[in-house]
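Could you help me review a protein record that somebody else here produced? Here is the record exactly as it was handed to me:
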Amino acid sequence: MRSAGERSVSRKTAGIHATQSESPWRIAKTRAGATAQSSYRGVLKWKRFLARKWARELDYRLIKELWAFTGPRIAVRFAYEWHDDFKNWFRSYGNENWEFNEAGLHDASARMYQRLADQGIRA
């Protein structure tokens, strides 16, 4: 059930939000914004964690796919591959659940939850 002021997301707009988030510009913007607000063990620890994680993820390639949507919320599956300084390759995958604000925007005033797993890739 929708709360007052929440805007529903259509299949088309949900899909657009998911695929647009693959662009390098959006990835950089999301990374910058991800450190702004967090309930993860304090903002400073979160910023340090993300800085370490992103510093070692080289040649990052991302794919996102709409998984489900209802009302102002969408679920997105993602996978990306990257390598570290030692040329060890990894695949990271997981789910994101996004909630949009009254204007239909996914921003700092909306909620996003993410679950991520990194797995080594062997040749």
The chain has a mean pLDDT of 77. The radius of gyration is 15 Å.
